[in-house]
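Protein modeling request. Please complete all fields; requests missing the sequence field cannot be processed.
Requester role: graduate student
Desired output: 3D structure, token encoding
Chains: 1
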Amino acid sequence: MSTLFTNATLADDRVCDVLVAGETIAEVAAAGTLAPADADEVVDCDGKHLLPGAVDAHVHFREPGFAHKEDWHTGSRSAAAGGVTTVVDQPNTEPPTVTGAAVDEKAELAAKSSVDFGINGGVTEDWDPDSLFDRPIFALGEVFLADSTGDMGIEADLFADAVARAAREDTVVTVHAEDAALFDPAALERAGDGTGRDGDADAWSAFRTAEAEAAAVDRALEVGADSEAAIHIAHTSTPEGIDAASDAGATCEVTPHHLFLSREDLDELGTFGRMNPPLRSEARREAVFERVADGTVDIVATDHAPHTRAEKDASVRDAPSGVPGVETMLPLLLQEVREGTLDLERVRDLVAANPATVFDIEGKGRIVEGTDADLVLVDLEASREIRGDDLHSKCEWTPFEGREAVFPEVTLVRGHVAYDARGGDETFGEAVGENVRV
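Delivered output (438 residues):
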């Protein structure tokens, strides 16, 4: 099967014809130079933009153990509908992905994925590094320096041992950087009973302090330097953490919720805005956005962490941390392009080219001959409001309710149509996802 995309505007404003043959991009040429007769199907993009599929380097698809929140079928469809063609799943499932057997179990579940995937191996006191590194894990991490969902926080000595082992295996270490010793328990006491959405949701931001992130980032970078390991800081929520990673030559990611939401939004979000690390001040959010725009930040990744409405509608102490985001990441960033606050090439690099480079994912992240035909067709002139009821995650809610965004018309995964919304009707293709490390 071959498909010719004609008159497609790429992120760098070149207008091109792009020929897909089977699962790869066969040719990229100036518009009007490739013959439509050579393709089984022709899609006239008519000035719309054709982008490389996004690589979301940080998702929690919840299987095994928590399939009532999300599973590989619903999570991957949500990804495809948002223009994400590769996801990397984190280890805090049940059982946690800290042994070779657990990797095998998760890989079997991921066979129903609509998009390509990687599986991270995690670290706990009873992890089995020999069997873990015997499997095709994507990276080591998310390694937790403080407890989050799944209670996988580890001590300093184990962290150092894990980083050293990853360095020997030439494997990137993705770090959840918070230092629990610098949390402020008094902040939760000031929240009163913190009941439900009417409680003081901002107490969670006051509790898990910005200083706790900065200190943990510094420690992770020091340990990484000692072992000459590649350190990647996950979901960096502070300009201090971003600058430290950049200064040390490490890489970091920022989530859409830390990019677009702040503590000022918590009056409306309540405990639906509780996550780890938490939302920061508006001043810090603006500083993070500046670093995303100017190239200091390497990657935008979602930390897609869905929970049910019933679970989130609890006290600030009891509500689980995390928000969904895999379907809205690229659409929100494209809206920023529409509004002139981000450059389209920068967005392409943040969600596609850079993740492929940082994590050495062969054939992903670029529209060039010989790479995987992971493609997203978007019309930057067509935006709509985000509505949780319209999204495809099992949790059926979003912290970005009502915000304008630009959603894909078509998403291809290795040349297969994973999602198609042309004509107003949505259709999904078959589950064709493959492990990018196999």
